[in-house]
Write a structure and sequence with these properties.
Layout lengths: L15 E9 L11 E5 L6 H10 L7 H20 L4 E2 L4 E7 L9 H5 L2 E7 L1 H6 L3 E7 L6 E7 L8 E2 L4 E7 L9 E7 L14 E2 L3 E4 L3 E5 L6 E11 L5 E15 L2
Parallel strand pairs: 1-6, 8-15
Antiparallel strand pairs: 1-2, 3-4, 4-5, 7-9, 9-13, 10-11, 10-14, 12-13, 14-15
Length: 260
């Protein structure tokens, strides 16, 4: 018998492995046990980065300028609808809508109720089904107190782990303050699907202009970087309590994309 031919539509997409980080929660537990919470390690894709991919892959005959105009005009109109109290459907991902958080008492004035306005979001069934493509690659349970959460351009804080060459970057985390005998902020070139192994130290690029140095926040000029993917490295000789350590601690971020 002839072999059954497979339709292109029947080919399953390969699963995407992701890292899951499990940390202790600071919230009290009624039973006295330590609560934990998990988060998925991910990079943020923006409309601008997606448009750049479309242009690079030549998947459209529309100019980048036209695509960007349409994207910005759509964003503006959707925001205007939201400002008028409308719920807005986000292109198949779900619906964003104005809502009220917390409870309301009989004596609450309209002004007090307004302070409870918040943003609600209901994901679509398609968005929930998309998660079926993800699979757990590894579970990380950090035992150290030094952690980097994210890095942003201070002028575009909504775009996490996405920078521009020469911008002022803000790094947030825990116990990341620079100090002691050995300390510094560095960047190292990696691939988009970085495996977690740090490049050789001689290839690290030092960030020389640090404008803010706090346990939870570092701000610095992202200098000497070109377009590509990087991991940022913090070396400090301070403990979480601010005491000088005998040996320095090295912490690294998730993959950060730099776009010109």
């Amino acid at each position: 018998m002839p072999k059954k031919k497979h339709s292109l539509l029947s080919i399953e997409e390969p699963e995407t492995p992701v890292d899951v980080v499990v940390r202790d929660s600071n919230l009290p537990s009624p039973d006295g046990k330590v609560r934990q919470y998990g988060s998925i390690v991910h990079r943020k894709a923006t409309v601008r980065s997606i448009l750049a991919e479309m242009e690079e892959n030549h998947q459209t005959f529309v100019s980048k300028e036209t695509m960007l105009y349409i994207a910005e005009e759509l964003n503006r109109r959707m925001m205007e609808k939201f400002k008028r109290g409308c719920s807005v459907e986000l292109l198949g991902f779900g619906t964003i809508f104005p809502t009220i958080k917390g409870s309301i008492s009989e004596t609450d004035t309209p002004g007090k109720i307004k302070k409870q306005f918040d943003v609600g979001f209901t994901p679509s069934e398609n968005a929930r089904n998309a998660l079926k493509n993800l699979t757990v690659f590894r579970v990380r349970r950090p035992s150290v107190q030094h952690i980097i959460f994210s890095i942003v351009n201070i002028f575009k804080p909504e775009e996490k782990n996405l920078l521009e060459p020469g911008c002022i970057a803000r790094m947030t985390g825990k116990a990341i303050k620079l100090g002691g005998e050995k300390s510094g902020i560095y960047a190292a070139v990696v691939t988009e699907n970085w495996n977690g192994k740090l490049p050789a130290r001689e290839n690290w690029i030092q960030m020389n202009h640090v404008t803010q140095n706090k346990p939870s926040t570092l701000e610095f000029y992202a200098e000497g970087l070109s377009q590509g993917f990087y991991v940022f490295i913090v070396e400090t000789s301070l403990s979480a309590g601010g005491k000088e350590l005998k040996n320095s601690v090295i912490i690294h971020s998730n993959v950060v994309q730099v776009l010109e």
